[in-house]
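User: Here's a structure from my thesis project, written as structure tokens. My advisor, Dr. K., wants to see whether a designed sequence matches the one we expressed. Can you design one independently, without my sequence as a hint?
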């Protein structure tokens, strides 16, 4: 990833943080279920572990910019789908690794290291890398 893309990505994550995202370092079980109008991704099965919650419907974020491993479970209460993109540094390109459908959830996605690699993105709505 070029330095310009990384700086732009970091800036977008900071804007997201100000505009509707929460990252929790504490276990998600203490936080309760995913709130309405949020996408919640968890790095543990059964909605446990660290959680990132986003209320944005048209933006992207890097999960690895938070205290977060990889997406193991999710709950999408947004009115839009979210897509997890895997970044291929050798060709500087993204591909969709998984769609987290609006209104959908999974207690164990079963995809190894989903969203956990350097450069991987989660984009909501029509936002793209």
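Assistant: Designed independently from the structure alone:
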């Amino acid at each position: 990833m070029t330095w310009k893309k990384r700086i732009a990505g970091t800036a977008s994550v900071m804007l997201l943080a100000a505009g509707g995202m929460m990252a929790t370092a504490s276990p998600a079980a203490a936080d309760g279920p995913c709130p309405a109008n949020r996408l919640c991704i968890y790095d543990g099965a059964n909605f446990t572990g660290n959680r990132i919650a986003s209320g944005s419907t048209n933006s992207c974020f890097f999960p690895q910019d938070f205290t977060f491993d990889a997406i193991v479970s999710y709950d999408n209460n947004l009115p839009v789908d979210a897509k997890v993109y895997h970044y291929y540094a050798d060709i500087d390109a993204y591909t969709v690794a998984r769609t987290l459908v609006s209104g959908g959830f999974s207690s164990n996605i079963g995809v190894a290291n989903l969203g956990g690699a350097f450069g991987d993105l989660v984009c909501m709505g029509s936002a793209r890398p």
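When you compare it with your expressed construct, this may help: The chain has one domain: 3-124.
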